[in-house]
Fold:
Amino acid sequence: MRRLICLLAVGLLITAQAALAAGEIQLDVKEKTLSNGMRILVVENHIAPVMSTYIRFKVGAVDEHNGITGISHFLEHMLFKGTRIFGTSNYEAEVPLMKKIDSLGVLLEAEKAKLRSPLRGGSEERAKALREEIAAVQAEQAKYIIKDELWETYLKNGGNGLNASTGNDGTQYFLSLPSNRLELWAFMESDRMANLVFREFYSERDVIREERRLTTENQPMRTLSEALNATACWASPYHWSVVGWASDIENYRLADMQEYFHTYYHPSNAIAVVVGDVKPEEVFAVCEKYFGAIPARPTPRQVFTEDAPQKGERRVEVEYDAKPSALIGWHMPGIGHPDVAALDVLSDILSKGRTSRLYKNIMEKKLGRVSAGISMSRYPELFTCNITPMGQHSVDEVMEATLAEIDRLKTEPVQAWEIDKVRTQADADFVRSLSSNIGLAFQLGNMEAMAGNWHYLIDYRDEYKKVTPEDILRVANQYFTKSNRTIATLVSADGAKPAGGPGRPGGPGDRPGK
Structure:
C-alpha cells in the first residue's frame, strides 16, 4: 500500500508540474449534490488502484457558544466510539446500561450545579458517590465494547491513515483505501453519520480535559496564543481555542452533545471528496445509496458575530515559568475578501524562507526567531507575528525590530524581485499540495466548505499572483496600525519579562486544530 501511494504521489506531482509549466492548472473535478443536500466531489487518478476519502462537516469552534466551547473537538473523538453495529458485541445489552449511566449523569450534573453555588448546599460526598456509581456501570458496559473496531475494520481492508481533525472553521475525517473498498467506506461513514452511539461519554470527557491540560495549559505558546485571541477577539467566536475552556469541558452534558450533533452532523452540512482510481458515476451511485438514505435536515444558521473595529492597542501578560516569547496580532478580514491575498504575499515577504526580511534582519543577526502569517478563516481573524528572542536579547528588543520591519512596508514599496520570489515559492507549494490523493482531497474539501466553491483553490492562486507593490503598501497602512493590534507576552511570576534565551519556535497563532 505504501509503495502504491508513493507512486501515486509522484504521478500527480509530474502532472501538476507540467500543467504549471504551461501556465495553468485545470482540475477535472466532477461534482454532485445528493437528494438530501450532501455535496460529493470526485477526481479520477488511475495511476494506482487506491483512493483517498475526505468528509468535511461545516462545523468547528466558531459554531459553539459559551457553555459548550470545545464540543466540536469532543465530537471528533466520539465519532470513533462506534455505532449500533461497530464498537459493540451486543448493542441491545448496552442500551439499559447507557440509560442508567445517563440518568446518573443528570443527577451528577445537578449536584455539581449546587456545588458551584455555596448557597445551594451541594454535597461533595454525594457527587463522589454518583461518580463511583457511574464508573461501576461503565465497567459493566465495557464488557460489550469492542475498542477501535472502526479502525481495525479499515485496517483489515487495506486502510491507511484513518484520522480526523477539528479546527475553528471545520471538522474532517479522512483515510486512504484500495479503490475496490469504495462501498465499504460509504457504508461505514454513513453508518456513523446516521447511527452514532455516544459510548463512554463521561470517561471520554475526562480524556478531553486531560488533553487540554497537556496540549494547552502545559504548553506556554498555546497558553499565550489562547490569551492573545481572547484579548483581541472580544465578540467573535475566535475568542476561545478549539479545545474549549476547561470549565465547559468539565460540565458538558450528554444532551448538549446530542443536540449539537443532530444540528451539524448530517448530509446537508457535509462534503465528501474522493480522489483516486474511481469512476465518478460509481462514486455518486454508491454515495446516493448510503449517504442519500439519511434524511435531510435544516441547514444550520451561520454565525454572524464579528468584532467591532478595535479602538486602541490591547496588551495582555501571561505568567509562565518558560523562556520568553510574544505574539502580536492585527485584525484582518476573512476568506474571500480582496485584501487577503495582499496580506498573504506580505507575510511571505516578511518571513518565508532564508531570504525573507525577518530572517535576514532579525534571525541572521541572532536577535530572535520571528514568523508571520495570515489566518485564512471563515470570518475575520488575526494576522499574527510570533517572537522568541535569542541569547541575551529581550522580547522588547526583538519586538521593536519586528515592528520596524512592519513599518518599512508602510513607507517603502517592496521590490519586484521579492514578489517574484514568493510567487515562485507559492507555485511550488501549490504543486506540492496537489501531489497526493489525500492532499488534493483536503484542498478541494476545504475550499468547498470555506468559500462555497472548490474552484476558489484556483481563483485564489490567481489573486495571489496579481498582487502588486502598491497593494502591499496599501494593506500595510490599513491594517498594521497601533490601534488595530494586540500584544501578548510571557512574563515571570513576579511580573518581570524573563531574560532572553533559546526559545521554542512556534507557528503564527499556534492553536489546536489549525
Observations:
- The longest strand covers residues 381-389.
